[in-house]
């Protein structure tokens, strides 16, 4: 685009360079005119560039991007006015003109250079750069999101693989879980038996403790002298028995607490195993339903395969029957071919006879008369025409039949190789595929017919 614009305004630039001269106090007006022309050409160039940039931006898919903000023309106009004011200030300061001259210069610049359009083009270009930068930022964000999405997909794939491994491990550990369930059941039974034994022992111990004071009173009533004789000894024996009875009771209670803790742990493990068993049951149910569906599909496929085999056997039987028919039709085909050859020979003989008869009956111009009467020649031509027509019709029918048999045998062999059903050939197609020698024979008969027609016309 820039190259085209440069080629378009190249003559204007060349003329402007030729007209440039050194500044002097007496050539301000001429320089003003040259400056105005150059500014016009530059403004035209900038206007063309801006128009092409706007057209390319409108045609590009960036214009339909919702991220691109609409251009505020008020800002563009303000920027254009500011740039025009700066240009005027720089021009007045550069030339050092008087106020009147400055006014004239401003008027000339205002008339010569449409700086509004150039400023508008610059503003459009800046806005285009901003939009391109924003679109590039959004593209980078989109690429970052895409990388994150790829990472999430890879992580999901890894999680799926780990889940598959965990399921396989769970399936492999199924016998161990079943054995652990059996061991847990046995441990619960043993624990219940031990609890029952502990309860019996505790009840027996309590009964013994309750029965011991009565026995002591009975012994004291029966032997008061012995009781009075050794009270210290009795007290020592009772304290020893109490300490000996308290020691097994503490051990039993400690053992009972440990057994209770073990029972709670086993109950928690049993609940976890029951939950796992329930989940396994649901998975087994799903697998059973899927296996049933696969069985139904397999049965349907087996039925389809059996039907296909039956159809194949039926087609094979048909092909065998067609092969037998084709093999039986071969002798008849050979006989028809021989008969067609005989008919061709007969037609050739008739043609020679017709040619000889036509040469014998032709009138001689030198003598001015005919050698043979015209009626005999006309009758001979009629008979020959009738016979040739009948022979042509018979030959055509036999050739059609022969071609029909040939095409049927070819189609049967081709279909038997491909495994497709056999279709009988069209008689029109068989008639269209005549041999070359039969076509030549028909052409010869056609060339001989005009001779007979000429003789008939002469008669």
From TrEMBL:
Tagged with keyword Coiled coil: yes
Biased composition, class Polar residues, residue ranges: 237-253
Top-rank lineage group of the source organism: Eukaryota
Coiled coil regions, renumbered to chain: 142-169, 305-353
Record's keyword terms, sorted: Coiled coil
Keyword Coiled coil found: yes
Annotated segments matching region Disordered: 1-37, 212-253, 418-459
Sequence ranges of Basic and acidic residues compositional bias: 418-429
Transmembrane segments: none
Biased composition (Low complexity): 218-230
Protein name (record): Uncharacterized protein
Organism: Polarella glacialis (Dinoflagellate)
